[in-house]
Amino acid sequence: MSVSTHTDRPLRRGLLAAAALLAASALALVPASPAAAHHGWDGFETNDLVYIAGTVSSEGSWGDPHSLFDVALDAQLPANTPDLPIPEELSGPEDSPRVEAALAYDGPHDELEVIIAPPWWSSSNGLDRSLEAGERFQGVGYINSTDDGLFRPVAFWYGDDKAPVNQVIGNTLPVRAPLPGDTQASVEPAAAPSAAEDPVEMDPPAEDAGIADDSGSETWVVWAAFGAAVVMAVVGGVLYVRRRTRQDERSPNA
Description:
Elements: H1 2-29, H2 34-37, E1 50-56, E2 67-73, H3 96-100, E3 103-104, E4 111-116, H4 119-122, E5 136-143, E6 150-158, E7 163-166, E8 175-176, E9 188-189, H5 206-209, H6 215-250
Parallel strand pairs: 1-3, 4-6
Antiparallel strand pairs: 1-2, 1-5, 2-4, 5-6, 6-7, 8-9
Helix pairs in contact: 1-6
C-alpha cells in the first residue's frame, strides 16, 4: 500500500506538469483571431458613404496592422462632400461621383476614432507620416457596423492643402452603393478587393517588409511548433514520472 501511494504521487505530479506545459504551449502558439486583429470592409456599413471633417485630436498610433487616431468633428458640416481633389485611384466615373455625393455624418458622436491602412500602404498613397494633433482632417468612408464610433475612410484629405490619400486598392470602391436619390433597387458590387487584398488586412509586400511568408506556410510552422511542444511535454512528463518513481522505490520510507 505504501509503495503504491508513493508511486501514484509522482505519476500525478508528472501528468499535471505535462498538462501545464502543453496548455502554456497552446496559448503561446495559437495565433490571434483575424477578426480581432484586423478590420475588413465587411465590418463596415459599405452601403452608406459618409463625409466627416474636423481636427485630429490625439496622437494615435502609426503602425501595423493599421493606424488609428481620433478626430474631433466640426460643429457644422456641409450637406455632402465639398470640392476636394479625388485620389487618382477613385477618379473613375463610377466612383468619384459617389465620393463627391457622400452625405455628411449625422451620427451621435462629436468625435470619431479613425482607422486607416498601415504605413507601408499609406506612404505610397499620399501620407508618409503620422498625423499630428490639431491637423485638419476630412474623410469619406464608412461607419463600423457594430461600433458607431469607428470610421474607416476610402479616401481622406489632411492639412490645410487638403492632400488626398487613397485607402483602397485599384480603381473601385468596396461597394458601389446607389447614389443619394438614385432609384436603383440593388447595390452594385464593385470589383472589390478580397480580404487578402485589403490594405488594412494584407501583409506588406516582401520588398517593403522583407517578409514573403504566405498564410499556408505560417499555419504549417505554427502547427509544427505546436506538435514539437506536445512531444516535448509528453516526453518530459514520462521522464519525470520514471525518475520520481525510482527515487520513491529506493527511499527507505517506501
